[in-house]
Amino acid sequence: MPPHKQLALDIFHEALEAISVDRAIKTKLLLAGDVLSYGNQSVDLANFDELKIVSLGCSSDATAKALVGVLQQTPCVASGRLAVEGIIATNRPGKTLSGFEVFQGGFPFPNEQSLAAAEAVLNLLGRASERTLVIFLISGGSEVLVEKPIPGIGFDDLVQLHHGLANCGAFPTETRSIFTHVSEMKGGRLAVSAAPATQISFIFSDAPTDHEETVGGGPTLHDRTTVATCDWIIKKYELLEKLPPTVQNLFQNEGIPETPKSEVEALSNCSSFVMLSNDDAVSAAHKAAEARGFHVVTETGCDHWPLEQATDFLLERLQNIIRGGVTDKPVCLISGGEVLSAITGEGRGGRNHAHVLHCCPRVSGGLLTILSASTNGLDGNCPSAGAVADGETLALARKLGMNPDEYFQMSDAYGFFDTLGDSIITGPLDSHVRDLRLILAARG
Predict the structure, then answer these.
(1) CATH number assigned to the domain comprising residue 307
(2) Looking at residue 268, what is its pLDDT?
(3) pLDDT < 70 stretches in the chain
(4) pLDDT (tens digit, 9 = 90+) per residue, 403-420?
(5) What is the pLDDT of residue 314?
(6) Helix, strand, coil % in the chain, rounded to nearest 5
């Protein structure tokens, strides 16, 4: 493999190691006897009679296991004085953890196990008291892995809603507002159900920075959106006819209850802490690239941009750095977040493969190396995290009779890079903190 391709892969894999769930929990939770500290906050486990752990999302199995491992070092838990029980709602077969119920919910759409998990969580939290500490572990995917509709909407209607809004033309951040308002589990309603317990939410964020309340539908954080927000989105994208009749009826007749806001008394005894986010991944990649002799620049301004616009912006940004002569080192531009890639065919691969494929003609014959990959190891509907390419990729593909434009139109960027051996296979990973994009510029 060309040296800069390997360097890009090395930087990416080092960043993945730095953002593992186990490492984050072990390094960001500090113990002093029974006192558990996180950020600038702390809690004394000795003040409680019972501890309930609710771990929800695609990382839930790993987060629960890591947290229990840390808590077992405290005198309260180690001695058995503090009773511990919990629930894990995951998208894969969960490993048995003593004292926990495990549910394998539906993904990317809720199923009957999603409903069973919701009922079990609400039942567990319904037994909480002022002497109960509840720790929530929230990661991406929990919005469908644990789900229950508000009164007046059947579960089948809610599943139909998830399907109906999957490709409706609205941004995921917009449809999320609708899902939040029709669910008993989202927008802070889960935290309300746990009152009067003391509550801590550890967030493993797959959302943009400062939007942690959207992770998993924000089950334990107050909701910034309103029913009026939902009405505006429904009108903007003409979604009313795509809603199941029961949901239509509630929106049309002002039957949707408002989600909890910051002033709600039940949320006054809740704290939260972002355990992992895309910032951690970008920071780890920055450190890894710098250690390999690169002048590193990070760029987060193209989050949620269309793929083509983001590509133009990032390549122009890099060229400006090079033309500016600010360094005699090779340059590494690191971009976090996600770009938007339209699906135009029935091939395989997600936004990361598509981004690298779109870049291939732009870097052909030059000294740039492009890598884009998901931190959870899976990109769209393929078994790969992303892809890597350099100035020789396009020529090699053409020698094999491959037309990159055809693969792009078929939405089969994975097929393109898999044939070339440039797809990045990691297997499913426990962390999911969005994507990393690297552009490495060698010195000619």
Answers:
(1) 3.40.1480.10
(2) 87
(3) 1-2, 94-95, 443-444
(4) 999 999 999 999 999 999
(5) 95
(6) 40, 20, 40
Nearest to 215 by CA among 384, 22, 59: 59
Q: DSSP states of 237-291 as a string?
A: TT-GGGS-HHHHHHHHTT-PPPPP-TT-GGGTTEEEEEEE-HHHHHHHHHHHHHH
Q: Is the separation of the CB atoms in 185 and 158 below 8 Å?
A: no
Q: Scan for tokens 């190396």, then name that residue.
A: 369
Residues 384 and 287 in one domain: yes
Range of the domain at 87: 23-276
| Four-residue CA torsion sign, 136, 139, 140, 146 | negative
Are 251 and 307 in a shared domain? Answer: no
Residue 142: both structure tokens together: 């929990």
Whether 353 and 248 share a structural domain? no
CA gap 57, 145 in Å, rounded: 6
- The pTM of the full predicted model, rounded to 2 decimals, is 0.93
Are the C-beta atoms of 97 and 64 separated by less than 8 Å? yes
- Report DSSP state, residue 298: E
Indicate which CATH number applies to the domain containing 184.
Answer: 3.40.50.10180
DSSP labels for 299-334? E-TTTT-BHHHHHHHHHHHHHHHHHHT--SS-EEEE
Q: Which of residues 228, 250, 276 is at a domain's end? A: 276
For helices 278-291 and 3-18, the axis angle rounded to 10 degrees is 140
